[in-house]
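Re: that chain you flagged

S.,

Sorry for the slow reply, it's been a week of failed gels. I finally had a moment to sit down with the sequence you sent. For the record, here it is as I used it:
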Amino acid sequence: MQRGFTLIELLVTVAIVITMTALAAAISQGAFPFAMRSAVDEFDAQIAYARSLAATSGNGATIVFEPRRDAQGAVLPGFSARVYAGRPNSAGALKAAPMPAVSVSGDISEASLGSPPFSIFFNSAGHASGMSGAVTTGSVLASDPGCPGGGPQMTFIFRDPRATDRRLLSCVQSVAGAPSVPAVQGP
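Prediction finished late last night. Pasting the structure tokens below so you have them in one place:
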């Protein structure tokens, strides 16, 4: 005796398949905002660590943002960032900080500097400045590049296909008892 599917069994099976397909699509689309959120969280952590390091290193701190790359060197969506103790001036060289480099798939740009590569500098008072291009451990800047765009702050924009977020970074940080000096001093 042959037994086929009843109409109810067929409808339940189709409903389960549709539900699973919709759930899979929602999960895969929901991963994109996670990339942007991860980029913002990593950025916030890098800034906090660099400011903390700058206050204790004697020569500030530097964060170098670069395009994210695969093992063959091809550019991928997102960015990588590394914090260095020190700034590239005559007072000392950059030294890799204990915090590991981060690599995230959410994109970053700064309103005046554009997309990576760019570098952000902090002095011991917490003042920030930035410039286009990635400084290296052998780089030496003759003078402070100042706040990009000449304004009082930097505007960082984080994007993925479904979301955008912004972070403002003041170029002058108020720290009780700290002198008001540029973020990167010349020789």
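What I noticed first: The chain has one helix and nine strands.

Talk soon,
D.
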